[in-house]
Every structure is written in structure tokens, then in C-alpha cells.
TrEMBL record:
This is histidine kinase. Its main location: membrane. It comes from Paucilactobacillus hokkaidonensis JCM 18461. GO terms for biological process: cellular response to phosphate starvation; regulation of DNA-templated transcription. Gene3D superfamilies: 1.10.287.130, Histidine kinase-like ATPase, C-terminal domain, PAS domain.
């Protein structure tokens, strides 16, 4: 109090010296009160400004965190805070951005999974020549294990024709497509390649490489063309014979013995023609998924095989091949007689045709634990190892200039009919030593059941 009075006294003296006026004490008390209020207002204002600045700084930090996706927590401020509405909007914006970010991430993961598992090979190269995407299929086609993307596509693409195609697309800025052959030792693949130039914006582009293995389609097309040629030959041969001998019979007065001989030949050629047409129709039904229902009956396999050997006896004599039925007596099984007969006929006929003079065809059967096995073996020319996987393909024939021509239908029909009988067929062959066709069926023969 003394200090305040002293201060007022000093100020009064200064005012008196300057202006010649003596101010009363009440005036100075009023001035002092006003100064105090000003100080208090300044302090309050400073606190408000500090708090506002602090909240504004928090909002600024939160906005930065939202853009950087660093923090998922919301800001909390009192409802009376001036920034309350702004903070609420920031929180709402954060939730919306987070939702969109998660949705985008999920879509990217789904797209990545889709591309990874596509049966078509996919490569994506950016404008800097960096490989950004290489899915599983393209790695298999290129025969490479591609890791640690991105890196230069030149490190992975070594096939000259494919590399030249990509470089040309980048230079010409124009998409291309062509068929490229990939050789891997003895394996040759036909790959349809599409190199697409995609300009995102000026000076920003991507090159997308799509690779599809069409080897099976090319092989099937070739087999179908071969089939048409072979079938035409097979059809022409009996028709020519029938026409020729028919004309001879009409033009000449042949003796009864000659007529009988010609008529026998016509009958044989007619049978061949009917058999070929039946095979074509049978394969057509099998390919179109129109097989008849199984008619399961009890079958004496020993007798059924014996009957087929008798039916093919003349063909065996013509080729000087001995037929042997080594199935135990009364080997009784349950199967579809029509299909099993066709399987046996085709297998035995094939074994005769592709045998050597003085060779043998042996038919055996045995029981396993819960299956029975049928085997047709020959002592013929055998099948090259690289051809064995394809002999059951439709229209396929093992190349051999010295053997009889066929349509490539027999074993294809056998494979289809075995599948309908719920069996499994396999080939065991050694070139120059013969072939064994093995078929396993579910169940066992009656003779071995207890």
C-alpha cells in the first residue's frame, strides 16, 4: 500500500511539474483500476488465443496425419469450443478418407489376386522400362522365377522375338499381336502374344503384355486336319473297291466262283466302311456328351475276350499274329457289355495292326485289393516315349510310314468309354519291344470273392 501511494505521489509530482495541475487520489485509483482490468483482459485474451492456437495446431496436425494416413484416432474438443464444428468436419473427413482408403486397398488386393491367378500371362512395363507386374502364368511361360519388382524388363525377357516385339511397340507407340513359338528342349509351345500400348497421359504410358498358351488348340487343329485327310483316305479305299468290283460284276459275265469272290470283297469293304462310320458317329456322341446310360450286367470276361479274339482271327492271320487269352476260367465281373466289348475290340485290333509278323497279342486280367485290371499286351513296334501321352487324344496317330493308316479314333473312343465305366487307362511301352495297355476298374471278379 505504501508502495502504491509512493508511486501515485511521484506521478502527481511529474504531472504538476509538466502541467501545473495536482490530480486527486480518486483519479489515480480509477486509472489503476482500469489498468488492472486491461491487464486481466489481456491475460484472458492471451489464454483464449493460446487455446485457439493450440486447437488449430492440433487440427493442422490431424489434417497432415490424414493425408499421410498415420493416425486413425479422432480429435476431441469441448462443444463450446469455437473450433468444434471444424474439428467435427475434420473427423468426418478422416472417417470418409479411411473408408475409401480401405476400400481402395481391398480392390487393389482383389485385382492383384485376380491378375496373379489368371490363366493368361500378364506383364506390365512402365514408361521407364521397369517391370511392375509379372503374374504366375507368365513366369511359367517364360520359365523364370521373377522376384523383387520393379526392375528392368530386359533382365527377364530373353526370347528374341518377344523382346523385339516389345521394343517395337514402345518405339512405334502402337499395339501388336502375333504367334510366337517358345522352344524348351523337346517341348515346343505356341504362344499368342498381345503387346498393348496404353497412354495414360502425354509422356506417361504403360506397355501391357498378354501371353496365351494355345499349343493345345494348335495341336487339336492339326489333328483335326490330319483326321480329315486320314478319314477321307479310309473312306475312299473301301468305296473305290466296292465301286470297282460292282462295275466288273455288271460288265462281265463272270463265273459263279468269281462272282462269289467279288461279292465277298465287296462285303468286307462294306464292313470296313460301316465300322469307320460307326467309329466317327460314336466319337461324335462321346464328344458331344451324349452317352447312353450304363447297362450293368454280370459278364464272363473270359468268354467275352474269347469272342473278340475269334472276331479278329482273320485280321490276326492276315498279319501273322498269334492271339492268346490268358484270363482264368469264369472271371466274372460287373460292367456294361456294349462298352467293354468296344474297348476290347479296339485294343486287340490295335495290338494286331501295330505288331510284327510272328508276334503275339496277349490278354490278361487279375484282381487287386478293390479293383480288377485288364491288360492287352503285344510284341509289336512299341511307342516312342514322347508320343505315349498323346495316343489317347482324339484324331491322334503315332507317325509310322510302314504301318497301316488309321483314323486315330480307336484309342480315343477307348479312353472315353473307359472313363464312362469309371476306369483308368495307362500305357506302358518300349520302342521296339511292344506295348501294354492297362485298364483298372473298381470292384473285383466273382471268382475271387469270399
Amino acid at each position: 500500500m505504501k508502495r502504491q501511494i509512493t508511486t501515485f505521489f511521484i506521478i502527481s509530482l511529474i504531472v504538476f511539474e509538466l502541467f501545473g495541475v495536482i490530480l486527486p487520489m480518486s483519479f489515480w485509483i480509477t486509472v489503476l483500476g482500469m489498468l488492472g482490468l486491461s491487464v486481466i483482459a489481456t491475460v484472458i485474451f492471451s489464454v483464449i488465443v493460446w487455446q485457439f492456437s493450440r486447437h488449430l495446431k492440433l487440427v493442422t496436425q490431424k489434417v497432415r496425419q490424414i493425408t499421410d494416413d498415420q493416425d486413425e484416432t479422432h480429435l476431441l474438443v469441448p462443444s463450446h469450443d469455437p473450433l468444434h464444428e471444424l474439428v467435427q468436419e475434420v473427423n468426418r473427413l478422416q472417417s470418409q478418407i479411411r473408408h475409401q482408403s480401405h476400400q481402395t486397398m481391398r480392390q487393389e488386393n482383389e485385382l492383384e489376386t485376380l491378375i496373379k491367378n489368371l490363366p493368361v500371362g500378364v506383364l506390365v512395363i512402365d514408361r521407364f522400362g521397369q517391370l511392375q507386374i509379372a503374374n504366375t502364368a507368365v513366369q511359367e511361360l517364360l520359365h523364370r522365377d521373377i522376384r523383387e519388382l520393379p526392375h528392368s524388363y530386359l533382365e527377364e525377357i530373353t526370347q528374341p522375338e518377344l523382346l523385339a516385339m516389345i521394343n517395337q511397340v514402345i518405339q512405334q507407340q502402337q499395339s501388336q499381336q502375333k504367334m510366337i513359338n517358345f522352344d524348351r528342349g523337346q517341348i515346343r509351345k505356341n504362344i499368342r502374344v498381345q503387346v498393348l500400348y496404353s497412354e495414360i497421359r502425354p509422356q506417361h504410358f504403360q506397355v501391357i503384355v498378354l501371353m496365351t498358351d494355345v499349343s493345345d488348340l494348335v495341336a487339336m487343329s492339326k489333328m483335326q486336319a490330319d483326321f480329315v485327310a486320314n478319314a477321307s483316305h479310309e473312306l475312299k479305299t473301301p468305296i473305290t473297291a466296292i465301286a470297282g468290283f460292282s462295275e466288273t460284276l455288271l460288265e462281265q459275265n463272270s463265273d459263279p466262283a468269281t462272282q462269289q469272290q467279288f461279292l465277298t470283297i465287296i462285303k468286307q469293304e462294306s464292313d470296313k466302311l460301316v465300322k469307320l462310320i460307326d467309329d466317327i458317329l460314336s466319337l461324335s456322341r462321346l464328344r458331344n456328351g451324349q452317352p447312353s446310360e450304363l447297362q450293368l450286367t454280370s459278364i464272363n470276361l473270359t468268354k467275352l475276350v474269347g469272342k473278340q479274339l475269334d472276331n479278329l482271327g482273320s485280321l490276326a492271320q492276315l498279319n501273322q499274329v498269334e492271339l492268346q487269352n490268358k484270363i482264368s476260367t469264369n472271371f466274372i465281373i460287373t460292367s456294361d457289355s456294349t462298352r467293354l466289348t468296344s474297348v476290347l475290340y479296339n485294343l486287340i485290333a490295335n495290338a494286331i495292326k501295330y505288331n510284327r509278323q510272328g508276334g503275339h497279342v496277349i490278354v490278361t486280367a487279375k484282381n487287386n485289393d478293390d479293383t480288377w485290371e485288364l491288360c492287352v499286351s503285344d510284341t509289336g513296334i512299341g511307342i516312342p516315349a514322347e508320343q505315349q501321352e498323346r495316343i489317347f487324344e482324339r484324331f491322334y496317330r503315332v507317325p509310322n510310314d510302314n504301318m497301316q493308316l488309321g483314323t486315330g479314333l480307336g484309342l480315343a473312343i477307348v479312353a472315353e468309354q473307359v472313363a464312362q465305366l469309371d476306369g483308368k487307362i495307362a500305357v506302358d511301352s518300349k520302342l521296339g519291344f511292344g506295348t501294354t495297355i492297362k485298364i483298372k476298374f473298381k470292384g473285383t471278379s466273382v471268382s475271387n470273392r469270399v
